[in-house]
Amino acid sequence: TLEAPRQAPALTNLTQEELLARLQKGIRHEVLEGNVGYLRVDDIPGQEVVSKLGGFLVPSVWRKLMGTSALVLDLRHCTGGHISGIPYIISYLHPGNTVLHVDTIYDRPSNTTTEIWTLPQVLGERYSADKDVVVLTSGHTGGVAEDITYILKQMRRAIVVGERTVGGALDLQKLRIGQSDFFLTVPVSRSLGPLGGGSQTWEGSGVLPCVGTPAEQALEKALAILTLRRALPGIVRRLQEALQAYYTLVDRVPTLLHHLANMDFSAVVSQEDLVTKLNAGLQTASEDPRLLVRAVRPKESSAEPEIEIGDDDLPEVVPTVPGDEAARRALVDSMFQVSVLPGNVG
Q1: The Tail specific protease domain covers which part of the protein (predicted)?
Q2: Burial 59-85 (b: 16+ CB within 10 A, else e)
Q3: Residues 236 and 264 both lie in one domain
Q4: Which candidate, 10, 2, 6, places its Cα nearest to that of 42?
Q5: Has this prediction a pTM greater than 0.85?
Q6: Digit-coded pLDDT (tens) for 180-190
Q7: What Rg do the C-alpha atoms of the chain give, in angstroms?
Q8: Residue 264 lies in a domain
Q9: CATH number for position 242
Q10: Which of 32, 100, 198, 330 sits between 20 and 30 A of 155, alpha carbons compared?
């Protein structure tokens, strides 16, 4: 069931102080542990508000997030907003060297379409394309917030974590039925979604997250994903060092190192994803099915050679040989079992 949008005073009738007060209620920001920026937006401001208050938003909000190593955009409580605000959010997360056509909006009452492009210039700086962005969603995320989530996902600019969005409408209009006291709320605008590769968009079906999790756990899950992704360069470096030091097929090592250096880890959101991708890539490059990477807990031991995947600060387990002869014999007995089977088979 679609509800009528909240009736609010026209923005043109509000003073700059009133606009600012409304904006501050719908936007929160902070820097979390691990230098992760957190930006919660509960109502997407439109072009009119941004043009009037951009001089406040950039220094007091955006500039404080620019130095972070990754960004979490929380849209779990965002149920609406203004279509004209879409290009602003997308543009600050899109590299500035090109403009990109991100959506086309069809408006039924006027029977017109409006193309939405990223902005060629923005006030302040754009968020670096080298930094990860995670968008949090819930079953209440709707309308303009869904379109932003969908665009960022299709651009492969953000990892969406949380619940499938509501699948609502970009714009609703409340219409009186004749001269009665009854009203009908209907969608009057829809996204044609040029980034979706067809007419099918998020409306009606919602945006499916990259990583599904209950909304109340989405932030915790996002931070775990960002911790893993922050460790990726160190993991790849240690893997390259291990191959150079230990892999017996030395003629294949240069190919493996080159392959590792050029692998695309943009879709890796879990340790399982990473292990699967590394094994597929290494075995393809080496043509050696025995070359395996496995993730192990720091204190877990194994009889098979393994390459540990984990944080750089995890302790490295170094095997030691006991000095006492009885202890050495006990160690050997625990590792090897020797017997002669029937038929004089060792």
Answers
A1: 15-214
A2: eebbeebbebbbbbbbbbbbbbbbbbb
A3: yes
A4: 6
A5: no
A6: 888 887 777 88
A7: 27
A8: yes
A9: 3.30.750.44
A10: 32
